[in-house]
UniProtKB/TrEMBL annotation:
<keyword id="KW-0406">Ion transport</keyword>
<keyword id="KW-0999">Mitochondrion inner membrane</keyword>
<feature type="transmembrane region" description="Helical">
    <location>
        <begin position="321"/>
        <end position="339"/>
    </location>
</feature>
<keyword id="KW-0407">Ion channel</keyword>
<dbReference type="GO" id="GO:0005262">
    <property type="term" value="F:calcium channel activity"/>
</dbReference>
<keyword id="KW-0107">Calcium channel</keyword>
<protein>
    <recommendedName>
        <fullName>Calcium uniporter protein, mitochondrial</fullName>
    </recommendedName>
</protein>
<comment type="function">
    <text>Highly selective calcium channel localized to the inner mitochondrial membrane, which mediates calcium uptake into the mitochondrial matrix. Mitochondrial calcium homeostasis plays key roles in cellular physiology and regulates ATP production, cytoplasmic calcium signals and activation of cell death pathways. Sufficient to operate as a pore-forming channel without the need of calcium-sensor or auxiliary subunit.</text>
</comment>
<dbReference type="GO" id="GO:0051560">
    <property type="term" value="P:mitochondrial calcium ion homeostasis"/>
</dbReference>
<keyword id="KW-1133">Transmembrane helix</keyword>
<keyword id="KW-0813">Transport</keyword>
<feature type="region of interest" description="Disordered">
    <location>
        <begin position="78"/>
        <end position="101"/>
    </location>
</feature>
<dbReference type="GO" id="GO:0015292">
    <property type="term" value="F:uniporter activity"/>
</dbReference>
<keyword id="KW-0496">Mitochondrion</keyword>
<feature type="transmembrane region" description="Helical">
    <location>
        <begin position="290"/>
        <end position="309"/>
    </location>
</feature>
<keyword id="KW-0109">Calcium transport</keyword>
<dbReference type="Pfam" id="PF04678">
    <property type="entry name" value="MCU"/>
</dbReference>
Length: 402
């Protein structure tokens, strides 16, 4: 006869009296027995109960802070800005959304050479539905702006499709227009790359995104008529246009990530340059000491030959000795040529000595030559990139005029 569930529960309590308060291990009125689980320590059980253990394992915010922080950024300020949704999380308290003007869009740069297009599309819709923006005292929240990440090589037609997808079910005709220096408006082709378009719009500091609507929300067929005629005859055709003025980033704002990265690289180069210069100077001094020592050995050799020839042994004995010593020098020089692959000269021996001493000092003081070369190359590339962007904004011309 099987014991009743009440007896099983009573036996469990008698067997494990210390676990009686853990109701999640075994309930006395349950119809089935439960396999006893491992009891967690109080401290670990408390962490697991609060969910902090799992949350800390999945939180990679500090890694993101290390990867994207500014040189003077603080972890606490970065974390507070992220939790509150303000600032760019780099400690300076500024971001692209906070600087967005009323009813205007903005084009900003990113750290990955992409463009960030911010448009207030949540406040726009088809003109026929009489959409109105909520007042300041209204309980209706204002729709947040829409952010698009654009690659410079993407065409404007791709941007148009992204905007259309955000405006569904409305299907306006999207066009991009900018002003010339004389104030004349012109429209860009959809096949134009985003990078070329931004390069030209940077001189005017802004451009316009025009959304052309018809009465039924569909683009009107322009058979036999041009779009210019339809725009001039809006009252008769029912075509309405909504435009968003988009601010183009300034030179300082567009190159802020490049200049920040350049400052970090230059700081690392400057830090390594001090130690590297000390090693180079010490290597040159050691090579000069070696050259002076070689000259001293030649003087000693000349003095020894003169003494032994004219005072001690005479020319008959010293002649074969000097001949053999000279021939030995030639043989050693030829072996140097075979081993080093270069002729024996003062400059080659000196440069080889400097190179060997410098490499030894670099290794002793922990200087990575490959890292040094990579930093120099990256600094040169960043300066080229900043110079290329400066040409788009006519910064070099303005600096020369000043």
């Amino acid at each position: 006869m099987l014991p009743s569930p009440q007896r099983l529960g009573l036996c469990w309590k008698r067997t494990f009296p210390l676990l009686e308060h853990h109701s999640w291990l075994c309930h006395p009125h349950s119809q089935t027995t439960t396999r006893p689980s491992r009891v967690l320590p109080p401290r670990l059980h408390k962490r697991w109960k609060n969910g902090s253990a799992e949350k800390s394992d999945l939180d990679a915010s500090h890694s993101l802070f290390v990867a994207e922080r500014a040189p003077d950024a603080k972890w606490q300020n970065w974390k507070e800005g992220r939790d509150n949704g303000v600032g760019d999380w780099n400690g300076n308290g500024k971001d692209d959304l906070g600087e967005l003007s009323e009813g205007k869009g903005k084009l900003a740069s990113t750290s990955s050479h992409l463009f960030k297009l911010i448009l207030p599309l949540g406040q726009l819709s088809h003109p026929g539905n009489h959409h109105k923006k909520p007042t300041e005292n209204s309980d209706i929240p204002v729709p947040p702006p829409t952010v698009f990440l654009l690659h410079p090589s993407q065409p404007l037609s791709h941007v148009s499709r992204l905007i259309l997808a955000s405006l569904m079910p409305a299907t306006p005709v999207i066009s991009f227009r900018s002003l010339s220096q004389q104030g004349q408006a012109f429209q860009w082709s959809d096949s134009t790359d985003v990078g070329d378009f931004v390069r030209d719009a940077a001189r005017a500091a802004e451009f316009r995104i025009v959304m052309t609507y018809t009465q039924d929300g569909q683009p009107k067929s322009t058979q036999g008529q041009s779009m210019v005629v339809d725009e001039l005859d809006k009252d008769k055709t029912g075509i309405q246009e909504t435009e968003i003025r988009v601010e183009v980033p300034t030179f300082a704002h567009r190159t802020r990530f490049l200049r920040r990265k350049l400052a970090l690289i230059e700081a690392r180069i400057k830090k390594m340059e001090v130690t590297k210069k000390e090693c180079d100077d010490e290597a040159h001094r050691g090579a000069k000491r070696l050259a002076v020592g070689g000259f001293g050995m030649l003087v000693v050799y000349w003095g020894a030959v003169a003494r032994l020839t004219f005072w001690d042994y005479g020319w008959d004995i010293m002649e074969p000795i000097t001949y053999l010593s000279g021939l030995t020098t030639v043989i050693l020089g030829y072996l140097w040529f075979l081993y080093q692959g270069r002729e024996v000269s003062y400059s080659s021996v000196l440069s080889r000595s400097i190179s060997n001493r410098r490499d030894a000092l670099y290794q002793a003081r922990g200087i990575d030559v490959e890292l040094w070369s990579e930093l120099l190359t990256e600094r040169r590339n960043l300066r080229k990139e900043i110079g290329r962007i400066a040409e788009d904004y006519d910064e070099e011309k303005n600096n020369k005029d000043k």
